[in-house]
Amino acid sequence: MSATDGRPTASARDERTGFAGTDSGAQTSTPTRAPTQTPASTATAVRSAAHRLPSGLGGRLPLVLAHRVSGPAHRRRRPRRVPPWVLLFVGYCALSTLMLRSLWVDPGGRGYGVSDATLFTWYIGWVPHAIGHGMNPFVTDMINAPDGVNILWSTPVVLLAILIAPVTVLAGPVVALNTLLTLAPAVSATAMYGAARRWTGVGPAAVAGLIYGFSPYVVGASLGHLHLTFAPFPPLLLVLLHDFLVRAPRPDTRAVGRWARGARRTGLLLGLAVTAQALISEELLATSALVGALGLLVLAARYPSEAREKAGQLARMLGWCALAAGVLLAGPLAVQFLGPYRVHGAIQPHDVAVADLFTFVVPTPMQWLAPNRALEHSLGFTGNAVEVSGYLGVPLMLLLAALAVRLRREPLIQVLTPMFVIVALFSLGGHLHVDGRITSVPLPWLLVERLPVLGSALASRLSLYLTMFAGLAVAVWLEQVRARPWQRRAGAAAVVAVALLPLVPASLHAREMRTPEFFTTAAVDVIPSGSMVLVAPYPRPDVPAAMLWQAQAGYRFRLPGCYCTVPGPDGKAQFHGDPSPLTTALLRVEAGTLTPREALALPGLREAYAALHPDAVIVGPTDNHAGLIELVSGLTGHRPVEEPGDVALWAETFRP
To answer: What whole-number percentage of the chain has pLDDT above 90?
Structure first.
């Protein structure tokens, strides 16, 4: 591939068209006239001649000659150009900032999908805090106290938390989260651009990155699901497999050593990538492995002889990958699957977050162009609007169908077309959904639901891979059009613009994530470090504000309750701590369904409070604030101390 104009060379294009990495044929040469000699060209010739001298002779060139050879060439060296991917990354970042602009009005006090945003804020702050204080970052009783939690069963984004730690220390975990959410589409789009460059020039590859990195999937996941928006791994997996299967030499007797080194090198690189992805999102890693395996099967069906020829080397490469990832992930995986508080069975319910048959062509509230008639249908799909992410729009679907026919002789399209169909079928879930109605028609995803790890994946999230295939197909077509007259190029650009217009996202509105002044100032130091503090509103999935306050206080105290994945009484996943008469009283008084006097009469309430034995109780800003103060005052037997930020504090084991 040419590094100057972004167009693949003829030999590079030949190299990319097949499954097997064979030579592209005999090369032709064109006689050229010898250029006029200049000092610079003479110096270059002398330098080249020095490299062609027998071993040891070139090093005995006089120093003065070396100086004269290098001097003019050095002075005439052209300044290095900024790589296109850097400029594109900056452009993608600007587009992402525009899309998430409501965050940056107050990046330390706003978030999308506040419940999930609070969860990720807690993990982003906790991981570097635990590592810095010599604590176990994976198993802790800082939440769901006094029992504890194994955070690896949630989505702790361990690697991202470590990488963003400087921002967390300087500006706080909310700013760190919003920074990652803004970077995630740009990083994903840039990775897709790099993958598409195997087949196309800069412009078409940039379009592929745009389709992938700013797809409805990524836009929807930006509303709280950081682990899903940060998706450079699928394009990276594509690059590594392509380079190994297509660009590597044939395994003949003259290239066995090189091939073995290629298998080891690719396997180790893939192992590092797998490790990184596992520490961001295991679900995305699992679905990438599934889609990658499907891709290999499609390739094997299309190129059976080459598949048999390379099967052994592919197995060696995957063996090196498993070795590298196994060594690097041995500790975390042992804690997750063998450690305390592990979960059994699927984490998410089946047949909910799946693609409806109409999902691909009916817009949702996440799209700018979403007529009310269309929303009447999409709002009836199972799953929330964030998970209904398979929308591609009628124009893009028609374009992809036309490209599947028009470019049917292109080897890449011959692989992408069946992959798109298979993955789209899998995204429909275990049973067919039609306009919000769950039918009894079984689908292939039923088999996947029975697998470990993959059984917890949500079928609707496979739409990420559909946008990857769509982006590559559009890019391949645009690459072919680049050689045509400008009228054809302009027409193609107009067609792509029309096809992508329905994907423009609607305005995203951030919500406040405020922390009372008590937790962000020295006032919180009145609580001894490591104390257990019962906080109302009691933390649970829909109102986890207490976890944000704890994170902003530097994890000074342990917190009963949580929004996290913990095993229930039957060992299956639940997203909150075990209920008790105490939690029932707190939740119902907050909701206004019980008066404080009625709550104080609940059987077992005082026993549950005595068993918890908190060092302090705090009531922060919440619904029915006065009622909760009356309830806690009845439990403790004394009135609270008023603290900054509308916080009431009851000290049980220390003097405030």
So the answer is: 78
